[in-house]
Amino acid sequence: MINSSTFSNKWAVLIIGLGFAQQIFAQSLAPNSTACGLNSTNGTYLVRAKYNDSAVLQCDCFGMHKPRIKWFLYEILSGGFLHIKQANSTVVERYVCTVEKGEMQNHTIINFRLDYTDWYSKYVFHSVFWGALLTSLIVCIVTFVVNIIWILTRESILWAERLSRVRKMVEALEKYRTRQMERIHENYQKKIQIVRDNYHQQIETIRVSYTAQSERFRDYRTAQMESMHSHLDSIRDNYYLQLQRVREHGSKRAEQLWESYEKQVNRMRAFSAQQRLKLMRQYKVKQRYLNKLLENFQDANNPEALRQHEEDVRVFK
After folding, report:
1. Which CATH class is domain 4-115?
2. DSSP, residue by residue, 218-249
3. Given Cys at both, which of 4, 25, 55, 277 links 84, Cβ 3.0 to 4.6 Å?
4. Mean pLDDT on 119-148
5. DSSP β-ladder status, 55-58 and 81-84
6. In angstroms, rounded to a whole number, what is the distance separating the alpha carbons of residues 131 and 145?
7. Residue 162 confidence (pLDDT) above 80
8. Which residues, including other chains, have CB under 8 Å from residue 162's CB and lie 6 or more apart?
């Protein structure tokens, strides 16, 4: 038995009432004034309650006078019923109701169980099954929406940083390409200038040698006219031959320098194109955006300027 001091800590409250008058004071069923009994004498019946609902366990007694009723597992209060306020697994027990009057004593056993039929009710808000499905669907929808919002927010926030990084990398790439192209042009101009100076120097040397040889044999023109003419012709032919050799050597050297220059320029252009394609694939930016960035860089080495510069420096072509 449980007294009243421990009852307040339980989730169920015992309320024992008189019950209905026709059940408690059924004098026709009592043979004498000292008799008492239960509708289910020494029997057992089952009471079910919905989860988290209240439940009332009724002790149906009869007799001439009100008998003394005892409830086991919980304390008896003034009244006639056992009231369970909140049904849960902790109050699922085997209850015993005992009725005493004088020396007469009867008892009945009440098995209290939880009723889970509402869990599969057709009402969505009263059914655990449909409620769980609806809750799962709502959670999935909310999770999907939150993920979409997070993806869009992340893309919008990180897009500015990504574009800034792409802009810096494109700027660095263009600066590197500009420096390399300037270095290639400078090397080409220096080598072309060396070839040009060497060409003019050799031409001047041949001209001076030809002039000196012509002056040397001019005094012998009268005495040895015929031999002088033949000798002057040989000197002139040798002069023109040397000039032709110098021109061919200079042209060949200029052609080699031009081919080397074109290879370096094409290699630099291919490197720039590969780096731009790598930026597009890595940061997922469009070609249009890169073109707009490149337009912002005031690059003197654009294709038209490069072609014009190549035509200017290509002296021997």
Report:
1. mainly beta
2. HTTTTTTHHHHHHHHHHHHHHHHHHHHHHHHH
3. 55
4. 83
5. antiparallel
6. 21
7. no
8. 283, 285
What is the residue type of 64? M
CB 95 within 8 A of CB 110: yes
Burial of 303 (0-12, 13-18, 19+ CB in 10 A): exposed
Report the Cα 177 to chain-centroid distance in Å: 34
Q: Are 65 and 91 in contact (CB under 8 A)?
A: no
Task: Give dist(CA 271, CA 184) in Å, integer.
Answer: 15
Return the SS3 of 11.
coil
Instruction: Write out pLDDT tens, residues 24-55.
Output: 333 334 444 445 555 654 456 667 777 667 77
pTM: 0.37
Residue 29 to residues 26, 38, 62, 64, 136, Cα–Cα distance (Å): 6, 11, 7, 9, 58
**Cβ 50 vs Cβ 109: under 8 Å:** no
Question: Going by C-beta distance under 8 Å and a sequence separation of 6 or more, which residues neighbour residue 134?
Answer: 124
Residue 309 vs residue 98, higher pLDDT = 98
Quote the mean pLDDT of the chain.
Answer: 70
CA 59 to chain centre: 66
Give φ, ψ of 65 to 5 degrees: -115, 160
Report the run of H or E that residue 38 belongs to, with start and end: strand 36-38
Question: How far is it, in rounded angstroms, from Cα 186 to Cα 184?
Answer: 5
Amino acid present at 127:
S
Angle at 80 between CA 76 and CA 82, to 5 degrees: 60
